[in-house]
Amino acid sequence: xxxxxxxxxxxxxxxxxxxxxxxxxxxxxxxxxxxxxxxxxxxxxxxxxxxxxxxxxxxxxxxxxxxxxxxxxxxxxxxxxxxxxxxxxxxxxxxxxxxxxxxxxxxxxxxxxxxxxxxxxxxxxxxxxxxxxxxxxxxxxxxxxxxxxxxxxxxxxxxxxxxxxxxxxxxxxxxxxxxx
Length: 180
Prior knowledge:
This protein is of the alpha/beta class. It contains four helices and seven strands, in the order E-H-H-E-E-E-E-H-E-E-H.
């Protein structure tokens, strides 16, 4: 992977470190690319990553070579995303895109030796930026989340149907085991 100067969040860096440890055990061919990515990355706190940086679960528009623009969500494990709408960081393209900025181009070598360039055309959604935007809104601007709403609260002296106050047993009239 060449031409990349990436910025990884602390979370994404930790995910890649764990991925590297696991992949080394199986002599996976992506290990050198993964180790290179980790060694060249600038690590930033989650709250300070710019909105145009590709992070895990970001929705990204990209181009491979001069091909058409594709839109995918960058995921850790492709099984978790809907089919055809996600791109795993366990692939060369996905790993290359993680930490790249909007407008940045990188060149990667595929397993067959062919080189291709990856251009990040746009970052449509980044979870960290979305979280910051919600926090910066005033409480009046934030919509209430969908869910159950309490519309009636029973009085404290409420009793279940069929139970009357005078019918409760207050004395101990249980004959015990000797009655049997």
